[in-house]
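Let's practice the habit of predicting before peeking. Look at the sequence and jot down your guess about where helices and strands might fall. Then scroll down.
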Amino acid sequence: MDLMNILYAVLVLGILGGIFGALLAFASKIFYVEQDERIDKIIAVLPGANCGGCGYAGCSNCASEIVAGNAKITACPVGGAACHEQIAQIMGVEAGSSEKMVAHVNCCGGEQAVKKYQYDGLKTCDAANKVAGTPMACPSACLGYGSCVAACKFDAIHVIDGKAVVDMDKCVACGACAAACPKHLIEMVPAKQKVFISCSNTQKGADTRNACQIGCIGCTLCAKKCPKEAITITNFLAKIDYSKCVNCGLCATVCPRKLIVNLRAPKVEAPVTEEVKA
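Done guessing? Here is the structure:
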């Protein structure tokens, strides 16, 4: 009797499963929404990083928005020009010119920035930023706890000598590091740019000197030296207009704080001298 009950239950479950399966199959055909084949083609050419640099949840969402006309064909910062060209062919439009961008940290203080106190809390930038106005004397100093490093999926940013530094060869301008920085020190700049004023401090010169050994004091010497008028001083802080800058590096030669980085300048190695014996 027990065996019959078991067989009966199995039979009923099997019949119900078959009925529900048939209903689901019927419903899937009735309510099926045909997907534009271009979406799958675009997904195939996207890098698949799902980094969110395009502003969407992932590559699939990005592809859907491109096809829907809500996103540009250059929306993916990771794929670069080659990827954009393929997407343009799929969409049947012109790719246009898309300048390669990279991230840059607007702070060069690091170990040369003055600390108000020793921070012993949770070693993240978000946590340090919420404690008593941050441990740094400069209100715009890189905290150096690597929230940007943790956010980067491409190993393109590291904390060196107490400050975040971008590896431009690895950076794909996804923007994850910029979003993770609580001080908003990271911006996207043209990859061809070689000269940077890596400071964000808008305090008066005297206050900046007390907060950092190399912070910008707004002396205007760099602006006066620039032959293209690409540098302006606003709120005691020098800023470069990258659309005007020609990377000549003249501004770096006159900066009294030696904070203007010129990546095109030749590296000069210190001469090797023999120890003088008494």
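How did you do? The first strand starts at residue 101 and ends at 105.
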